[in-house]
Design brief:
CATH topology of one domain: Serine Threonine Protein Phosphatase 5, Tetratricopeptide repeat
Distance between the termini: 32 Å
InterPro entries: SusD-like_2, TPR-like_helical_dom_sf
Number of helices: 17
Order of helices and strands: HHEHHHHHHEHEHHEEEHHHHHH
Organism: Larkinella rosea
Protein name: SusD/RagB family nutrient-binding outer membrane lipoprotein
Structural class: mainly alpha
Radius of gyration: 22 Å
CATH architecture of one domain: Alpha Horseshoe
Oligomer: single chain
Keywords: Lipoprotein
CATH class of one domain: Mainly Alpha
Number of strands: 6
Shape: globular
């Protein structure tokens, strides 16, 4: 396990609005070991979480981007040499090494948890535990068994043992219960709400986020034999607790009060695939392309309002009229790129990432961690699978709310969602859909597009939906089901990595991936 020194950038500007230009500036005496306030560490940790998941111009392919590809939502634009690591699945334990960055980030949250009481900042413990749980779930979903009980102990444990992934999942429910108890007991001090760049000090929203993560952890295990009673019991506990779930808004880091039109301080999505601080288009703008499967599926269902928010028409955004396409926005001008194709689909004749993600000049949108739409589809699946749980609405009501929230977060007119009620369109009209769980899975897949790539790939592995075409670069049916443990962990904790057995990224499935 990589050890981390706690040299944390102090985000002083987030407490005093008059200094917000300096939130990433460093002015440190190198001869004095700094001490960090948990509030500064927490703010920096949240920003780091977004960067580690989403990326920016200085990072490589981060989990969300890779997830969009492997979930069949994005492909690679032509004009670049084909990336065989991603599209031919030619990767090793030296690729997709997100492990160290995640554990470094977890150390930050653990620092906050350990030091909040002593610094009279108890209100940070609950949010830090929520974020800790989110990161650990993502680590399990990428790697399976991971260090958990022995982790985050610094020099006390230099070679932490790996915990069984099923046990980690159950421990995360307990951790989130602790987080909610801490949140209820410790409201934010008004002077420190600026350190919370997610919910601005709302402990109610943090508790709702915690419950939404619990629902995700539970539903992820819904196909695992013998878990039904446990899952239903835990869902009923969430309802009894009473804080509810994220509704009508999304969980996002930063936003207009945080991101700035300055190099290194832009929203990471905008910075990586959109424009630089001066409004010049990034070279990578033409790399990710919505897939032919995605675009054609939306067209076939008449789902063109969302399509026009997911993607710009062929030739891309009109820089003179930001948020609109160069070409007329009619279905004929939207052409997806086959997954993994290496020629024949140039920027001028294919769609690009749309205004739900990139609009020139909109550099300060929040970095999305979880959408309200995803939460509604989790609730829909819970009610459809377990009709006797105490969730108050029907599976159909949650399903339809999920589509509405998908329209909202994409920036499409939510009235367009009403057109699918009673439409008889398979997987859109709940009553007419032959398999309700399939309808929920496919609508969630659409809703995750452009917002939660890692989640989309994880859900694809769990549900095998939708039925995606194989990469043009791959001759057989193999697809990645996990990552290898990184070579850095093998080098520093080799015995415990070896103890996990032989890992095959195409056949060593995670515990919730049962078919």
């Amino acid at each position: 396990m990589k050890l981390k020194s706690f040299f944390i950038i102090a985000f002083v500007a987030l407490i005093g609005s008059s200094c917000k230009e300096s939130f990433l500036d460093i002015n440190t005496n190198p001869n004095v070991l700094p001490t960090a306030s948990p509030s500064f560490v927490f703010t920096n940790a949240l920003n780091t979480t977004a960067t580690n998941l989403i990326g920016n111009s200085a990072t490589g392919t981060q989990p969300n981007e890779l997830g969009y590809y492997w979930a069949g939502q994005w492909s690679q634009g032509n004009g670049y040499i084909i990336n065989t690591t991603i599209f031919a699945y030619n990767f090793t334990n030296g690729d997709f090494t997100y492990w160290d960055a995640y554990y470094d980030n977890l150390q930050d949250y653990q620092f906050v948890i350990n030091n909040a009481d002593a610094n009279n900042q108890k209100y940070l413990k609950g949010p830090a535990k929520v974020m800790k749980a989110m990161l650990y779930q993502q680590l399990v979903d990428m790697y399976g068994n991971i260090p958990y009980t022995d982790a985050l102990k610094g020099g006390e444990v230099l070679a932490p043992k790996f915990d069984d992934q099923k046990a980690v999942y159950e421990s995360l429910i307990t951790l989130l219960d602790e987080a909610i108890a801490d949140l209820k007991a410790n409201p934010f001090a008004s002077a420190f709400t600026g350190s919370d760049i997610v919910f601005k000090g709302s402990v109610t929203k943090w508790a709702q986020f915690a419950n939404s993560l619990k629902m995700k952890i539970l539903i992820r295990q819904s196909k695992v034999a013998g878990k039904e009673t446990y899952i239903k019991t835990e869902i009923n506990k969430i309802v009894t607790e009473g804080s509810g779930f994220i509704t009508g808004e999304d969980v996002g880091v930063g936003g207009p009060s945080f991101f700035l039109a300055t190099a290194g301080k832009l929203n990471g999505v905008y910075d990586r695939w959109g424009y630089d601080a001066n409004g010049a288009k990034r070279a990578l703008n033409n790399f990710p392309r919505p897939t032919q499967f995605l675009i054609n599926s939306l067209k076939a269902a008449g789902d063109t309002l969302r399509m026009k928010r997911i993607a710009y028409a062929n030739s891309g955004e009109n820089g003179s009229v930001p948020g609109t396409s160069i070409l007329k926005e009619v279905s004929a001008n939207y052409t997806g790129t086959p997954f993994g194709v290496s020629s024949g689909y140039l920027p001028a004749n294919t769609t690009s990432l749309g205004p739900s993600l990139i609009v020139k000049g909109e550099y300060n949108r929040p970095a999305i961690l979880m959408t309200a739409s995803e939460v509604q589809f989790l609730l829909a699946e819970a009610k459809q699978r377990y009709s006797d749980v105490t969730l108050p609405l029907t599976a159909k009501a949650y399903f339809e709310a999920g589509i509405v929230q998908s329209f909202r977060v994409l920036g499409a007119n939510v009235a367009g969602a009403e057109a699918f009620k009673g439409s008889k369109i398979e997987n859109y009209d709940f009553d007419a859909s032959s398999n309700k769980l399939t309808a929920i899975a496919i609508q969630k897949w659409i809703a995750l597009t452009n917002f939660s790539g890692l989640e989309a790939w994880t859900e694809y592995r769990r549900t095998n939906l939708p039925v995606l075409p194989q990469s043009v670069q791959v001759a057989d049916a193999k697809r990645p089901v996990r990552f290898y443990y990184p070579n850095t962990e093998s080098g520093s904790n080799g015995a415990n990595v070896t103890a996990q057995g032989t890992i095959d990224a195409f056949s060593t499935k995670l515990f919730w991936d049962v078919d």
